[in-house]
Amino acid sequence: MSANPGPSSSALAQAESTTQHLRPITTGGWRRGFAPMLGKELGQWWGTKQWLVQALTWLVLINGVAALAMIMDPSEDTLKVFLPVTALVTAVGVIVTTQGAIIGEKQRGTAAWILSKPVTRTSFLLSKLAAYGIGFGVVALAIPWAIFLAEDRFIAGNDVALLPMLGALGLLALHLLVYLALVIALGTVFDSRGPIAAIGIGVLLTGQFFGGMLPIGFVTLLPWILPELADAVAHGGELPASLPTALIANGALIVAATVTGLWRLSRQEL
What we know:
Layout: H1 9-19, H2 34-46, H3 50-72, H4 79-98, H5 103-108, H6 110-115, H7 121-154, H8 162-189, H9 193-210, H10 216-219, H11 226-234, H12 243-266
Helix pairs in contact: 2-7, 3-4, 3-7, 4-7, 4-8, 4-9, 4-11, 7-8, 7-12, 8-9, 8-11, 8-12
């Protein structure tokens, strides 16, 4: 059996570049290295043009469709267009964008380099989950949501209540986080991007096409029901009876996926 050649010189150079601005480690336990790793991950979002490219992409995909629907039929309930489009395209975007978050680090050898520093594997994974969650939350949800409120007011002439809309935004954020946690966890299971994308898109499209055929009690436990609940919350009135169950179940899915990813990562030699 041949010896592991280790990371290439280019991978080492990239790893050195990503770690040269990390702050000294002052915490211990599982949190060791979390703060500097989170800063590094957030820097990749906000320290480059990536956030601007992402923001413009979501504005075109989400707000462009919403504006077109408003112009074509100002009397239409634009939330019926905006909410499902947002849920679908942000989930697809998360799957496509993050499928290489863990695998790419392993393939380039930077994961092994970073973890040779005083950084725990828990901090390594959680920093990615937190940074991608914050990044997508801002550019794919908060910014398009603010633009939509302006569109709905000035194009369609609607005056949407802010509090119900914030509740709906929270449900869509939960929807996004479920798929993010799933993809990050799958990155610790597989060694190529194909299975991750296939499973993530497969789960999403199963809900899109077959969710209505399945028992409501089962669907309530999965992220498929969250866009529907977001629609109900955004329109005000009495809250759906299934809302508490959906919140607990999908929160548990995020925790379960994260714990699975941590367990797998702790048993791998990078």
